[in-house]
Design a protein that fits this description.
single chain; alpha/beta; Rossmann fold; seven-stranded parallel beta sheet; six-stranded parallel beta sheet; 14 helices; globular
Length: 412
């Protein structure tokens, strides 16, 4: 079988769905080489991959977009971090390719330098997007602000004005730093963010309709394969009460200024006939009040809890949100930054739950949003059916084998 080298950014939220796809490829007999950050290395080793660390200098460039005061500043900050890391990724991936001699590359979408090297190398490669790509489309609003889709003349005017501003910001943030790298590698510099995404021979996106908006103009190169769920091992396996419905609430596995969400959720639901399980992946804050109907963990395996939960409250991370929806569990999303505004709007538009923006977070508002979400099981089940039909890791592995490795199609 073939050797597949995967290169990821310093983010567990990006690593986990890629790891799910890699597990399926390993199950089919392929050798998997994973180059990732320190926190992700145990994940890869437990899965049976050959694991090597990324350049420590890459991890040293910390993501600070959560400190930005506006969405515009957050985008600029995040893209500046990707650009700074990109300069180090080129040689880092070059060394990994020389050492492992892979047959194909799988590149995290946030690794700009690794993608530039992959394009220049004489190897088949794919990019993996754990969140919707920021490819423009006349069918949907511009990516980034979580705008509600609007049709007709007013919608087109709004999308045109906002899209020009957002796409201009994305282009300015990418063209100059990536152009330097691409010229050094001997490849044609990108002309836009759209051009950057479409350079990959295969773009795998970890979501699917009806959660994702229909994109008739994306083309065959972009494939929505549905969520790729990776079962991370739990330090604590929480137990659900058999007497009350469970509401699971969690915030991000990376620092994003969203520690208030589980705290407010416990206060909001303290007098409700539910059992609240709150998880703080970055550590439980000191001195928080824990009501009688709530339990708190730094980490718990969400899958078994969601199998019988009535609702999940999330920060809008694709992993946590789609893990609930894949089981037909409605969600209440409270976005704080990054792609979370887009995730929250997709929950609302698919009628699979509710959204409450972070700046309006309060116990009464959150309680109302959660109780409404708990009535939206039908929408969540429609999304779950769409996810199942997309194929997930099996579909992604089929595409990689067929399009990159030249293996016979197996239904993918």
């Amino acid at each position: 079988m073939s050797t597949i080298l995967a290169y990821t950014s310093p983010s567990l939220g990006n690593l986990y769905p890629i790891a799910a796809l890699l597990c399926e490829l390993r199950r089919r007999g392929h050798r998997i080489v994973l180059k990732t950050h320190v926190a992700g290395q145990p994940v890869g080793r437990r899965a049976g991959f050959d694991v090597t660390p990324v350049d420590p200098g890459i991890e040293a460039i910390a993501m600070t977009d959560w400190m930005a005061r506006t969405g515009w500043q957050a985008i600029k900050t995040g893209f500046r971090v990707f650009a700074d890391r990109a300069a180090l990724e080129v040689d880092d991936l070059r060394c990994a390719v020389a050492a492992s001699r892979p047959d194909a590359l799988l590149i995290d979408a946030n690794c700009w330098g690794a993608a530039a090297f992959a394009e220049a190398a004489d190897l088949p490669w794919a990019s993996f997007w754990p969140y919707p790509p920021y490819l423009p489309s006349p069918a949907v609003p511009p990516f980034g602000l979580g705008l509600r889709p609007r049709h007709g003349v007013l919608g087109r005017v709004r999308d045109g004005v906002v899209g020009t501003a957002i796409n201009g910001l994305l282009d300015r943030s990418m063209i100059e730093p990536l152009g330097r790298i691409q010229r050094a590698l001997g490849t044609q510099p990108i002309s836009s963010a759209d051009d950057f995404i479409r350079r990959a021979p295969l773009v795998l996106v970890g979501t699917a309709e009806p959660f994702e908006y229909p994109r008739p103009d994306w083309g065959e190169r972009v494939s929505l394969i549905g969520p790729c769920e990776f079962g991370a091992p739990a330090t604590i396996r929480a137990r659900r009460s058999s007497e009350r419905p469970t509401v699971l609430v969690t915030n991000s596995s990376e620092r994003q200024g969203d520690d208030a969400l589980p705290v407010v959720a416990m206060a909001a639901l303290a007098e409700q006939p539910v059992s609240v399980i709150a998880t703080f992946p970055c550590g439980v804050p000191d001195g928080i009040h824990i009501p009688d109907n709530a339990t708190v963990h730094s980490f718990a395996e969400h899958g078994p809890l969601l199998d019988t939960a009535a609702c999940a409250i999330t920060h809008g991370g694709m992993g946590a949100t789609q893990k609930a929806l894949a089981r037909g569990v409605p969600v209440c999303v409270v976005p704080f930054g990054r792609d979370q505004f887009e995730v929250a709007r997709r929950v609302e538009m698919s009628r699979s739950g509710t959204r409450l923006v972070g700046r309006r977070l309060s116990p009464p508002r959150l309680r109302s949003a959660v109780l409404k979400a708990m009535t939206m099981t039908a929408g969540a089940r429609r999304v779950a059916d769409g996810f199942a039909a997309a194929g997930g890791p099996r579909r992604g592995a089929d595409l990689l084998e067929y399009r990159l490795l030249g293996m016979p199609a197996t239904g993918g």
